[in-house]
Design brief:
- Residues 27-143 form the Calcineurin-like phosphoesterase domain.
- The protein has 256 residues and is of the alpha/beta class.
- The chain is built from 6 helices and 15 strands.
- The protein has a single domain (6-255), classed as Purple Acid Phosphatase, chain A, domain 2, CATH 3.60.21.
- The strands form 2 sheets. Strands 7, 8, 9, 10, 11, 12, 13, 14 and 15 form a 9-stranded mixed beta sheet that branches.
């Protein structure tokens, strides 16, 4: 029986990725140092969750037996070059991974512009428009993906931090992180890339990862007035399904 290209880890905002020669643990939007960013951006004072974030990731590695960590963008929170406690958090994470002989691959996001300068040779950086490893396309989602990533049968992205607001019978509500999955439409990408006749297309499924960082907010995909952040959404995803991290299928995301 073939292993699924992308298999969510039950109860976690993470998935295992079959990259052909390796099995990876995929997460999106780690946002190291977010507490520092929230202090400067919003005046919110929060104790750092750096140690807890790192231990959650390491426990998922132990649980899945993955050989690599893939971060689908926004490893760090501040858009500027990471320094201070933010850089320390990434450094300690990389130290822990290297102690396990587990490399990290980063599909660069809009917050990751200075990562290469601060951590040269410690992270495998993908091109800004993503890449394909095995039969999995890896992108962040803040820009149009390149033809290589789109040639895969499954395309994984972050950036959106998808969430759903669920309301009970008495009017109470809660917000939960969610997965968003569905077939990609070729037309928007062919138009944007100007490659109608050249774009290799294997009817890919798009998998939008929930944010790994629980403090990073997100896009309420089932609330009127919320707009997507990726330039190719929602046009590129006509019939996506929403799922909670515990595996509960909520149905078409527009109808949740």
């Amino acid at each position: 029986m073939d292993r699924p290209a992308v298999e969510p880890v039950p109860g976690a905002p993470a998935a295992t990725l079959d990259l052909g020669t390796e099995r990876a643990l995929g997460v999106a939007d780690y946002h190291a140092g977010i507490e520092i960013g929230l202090r400067y951006e919003r005046g919110v004072e929060l104790d750092s969750n750096a140690d807890a974030r790192r231990e959650r990731l390491l426990s998922l590695l132990d649980r899945t037996g993955a050989e690599r960590v893939v971060v689908l963008g926004d490893l760090v929170h501040r858009i500027a070059e990471p320094d201070g406690a933010e850089a320390d958090e990434v450094r300690e994470l990389l130290d822990a991974l290297e102690a396990r002989d587990v490399p990290m691959t980063l599909a660069r996001g809009n917050h990751d512009g200075g990562v290469a300068d601060v951590f040269p040779d410690r992270i495998d950086l993908l091109p800004p428009d993503g890449a394909r490893i095995g039969d999995v396309g890896l992108i962040h989602g803040h820009t149009w993906p390149g033809a290589e990533a789109l040639s895969a049968s499954t395309v994984c992205m972050g950036h959106e931090h998808p969430q759903v607001r669920l309301t009970d019978a008495v009017g109470g509500s809660r917000v939960e992180r969610a997965w968003l999955r569905g077939p990609l439409r070729r037309a928007p990408f062919a138009d944007a890339l100007g490659e109608e006749g050249l774009l290799e297309w294997n009817d890919p499924e798009l998998v939008v990862f929930p944010a790994f960082n629980e403090r990073s907010g997100g896009t309420w995909i089932n609330v009127d007035g919320q707009s997507f952040l990726a330039p190719f959404l929602p046009d590129g995803l006509a019939s996506g399904q929403a799922y909670l991290t515990d595996g509960t299928r909520l149905g078409p995301y527009r109808e949740v």
